[in-house]
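Internal ticket - ligand job 718, beta-D-glucopyranose:
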Amino acid sequence: MFSYASLIYCPKNEGDAVFKREFSAKAGSSLTLTVSALGVFDVRFNGEKVSGDILAPGWQCYKKRIGAFEYKIDNVRSDNVIEIYASRGWFSGRINIGYKEGAAPKHPTAIICEVDYVDSFGQKCKLVSDDSFMASAYEVVSSDIYDGIIYDARVKRDWSPATVYDYTKDKFTLIDSVRVKEHESVQPIEVIVTPRGEIVLDFGVNMVGYPVLNIDAHEGERVSLSFAEILDSDGNFYNENYRLAKCKYEYICREGKQTFKPFGTFYGYRYVRLDEYPHEYRDGEITSVWVHSDIERTGNIESSNELLNRLYENIIRGQRANYLDIPTDCPQRDERLGWLGDAQAFVKAASYNFDCLEFFRKWLCDVVLSINEKGVVPQIAPVPDRYANWQLAEAKAAWSDAITICPWQMYLTYGDKAILELTYDAMVSHVESMRRRAGADGLWRGDEQFGDWLGLDAPEGSYKGSSSDDVIASAFYVHSVNILTRVGAVLGKDNADYKQLYSNIRRAFVEQFEPILETQTECAVALYFGLVDNRDVVTDKLKAKIHSAGDRLQTGFVGTPYILHALSENGESELAYKLILREEYPSWLYPVTMGATTIWEHWDGLRPDGKLWSADMNSYNHYAYGACADWMFSVMGGIQPDELYPGYERCIIAPVPNPSLFHFKASYKSKHGEIVSSWRYDENTLTYNITTPVRSKIILNGTVHEVDAGSYEFTSEV
Ligand code: BGC
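stdout (structure tokens):
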């Protein structure tokens, strides 16, 4: 594409610039505009924004593809002007190049576009970006995803012809996927004066987006804001956990009334400190706007337990905040990266909460493109340049496995085979990369792993829980091969080799590791992946591990998504309920009792004594532990896709109620209609109310009821 167009940039500001071109067309006709950038762009046509897209065209594996967006514009005028604003974005901002001394962008921010329009004689014409476009530095002095924005409203534009940038056009490709948009606006709930005398606006929830300014000020006056997710135990502003990300918001006013909205950046925050402000803050001058991918909400949970309801709301908020073009680990500090481990831990919960098929199709395409020549699936995708060297050394258990786990979940939830086709070769490649690393007995040992990241049983000073790297690595290896065989069966591949491999390495795991499973995570993973022959023994061990820890979780990123399933699938739902409803530290509800509005990276991000986890790895918006929502839907509510009828063409509804709640309700909007599963305890009865839009198996306490679409009530004595 872009055969005739050139990339152009503005030598006066290689970071932020605006480009424009005037042209005549047939009044009332329509045109198609195709745009891309080495950076991110925003298009205005005759002064109006052509779309609500934010940070277009998003983040891809730029070494292989750079997205282009197409826009249709109707009813054009005879004299038109197209303007394109551009910033470094993910392409060459800090997020890609990092902060190491000397790190500098390799390319200027450049745009490329084509306009297919009709001229005043009715002839079809093509206008392309080249040095007939004018370019100027403009009010955005600098913008960067990590470092924020500096904007000088006094700057006058100074136009000169754009400069052509010599860069391959082979990578540009049209992308038509779910896009990043603005969502609701939030007003501050309070203006706080902290003990240190700082003026801080509290937006009530930890969110992602940006503040929009609406003030009356004098030329040269400044607004300078800082961002934070929490206040420290003294009530002071605290943002050391943003690490190197500068997150600036500096606005130099012109005279009079003005509004301002940042471009080329986003912030993760709840609190905004007014570092410089022209006058005393007046209500309505700063509003925050949510920004994230435009995914549609499909699931909901409500129960008689207010803290559980808030936990679920926090999970939803965490997903919205971290599904910003790609699934990220966190939205605030100097990461905001597509960590595969986090994505796979949360994918099942994610696919109940929101329709994320297209979101994952796009991201998985970039995961596939990020695989290296050795066939290794990375741990972050797209791989930022600054991590290119270590990222692809070898696969990392539970991180690289996102390549099997995520597409398989998409298939189960949405019945989409195309996503399996898209990723099948990559799954094979991943499995082969593990097979190469495995020993003669078929198990994967000895490689450096992230392990049970942030597990609470970590030795002092370590991020890694004490579960064995080798057990985790081998378990995920077997699990990925298992998924691969299922995918192969769906796609009609000759699978014999992988079936054999699965059976061999599963057996090796059972023989070598089953007897020595030690930690909560090791037991939970082995049980959930079906890697044990003596379920009762391992379940007892898991129970004993939980009890000896004081009925507490010790799991990290690897074990947490599975521990509740491992218990409830093995007759221990009572203990699973105990864990999910526990309020004291450590637990899912503990952060809720501490006022959390999102999911924390650490169980003890904010400790009971008010102390914070060290600033170097402490995000308050990391969704991984929110994976428990998949247990709420699939066990508490019992709503499960049927592997034989994927995409909820038929479904299984097998709720597991527990009297620690009076009532519980899960609902999920499948493409065939809404599934609702609720239960309620009254004095002597337990009543289930279930609605299904398709033929389903309702399983209550082991009894299977085959039902057609409809609403059903079941009652039993308690
Ligand atoms: C990220 C995680 C990620 C991990 C890998 C962290 O810095 O924030 O969420 O999965 O590194 O170990």
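Auto-summary: The chain is about 25% helix and 30% strand. The longest helix spans residues 469-491.
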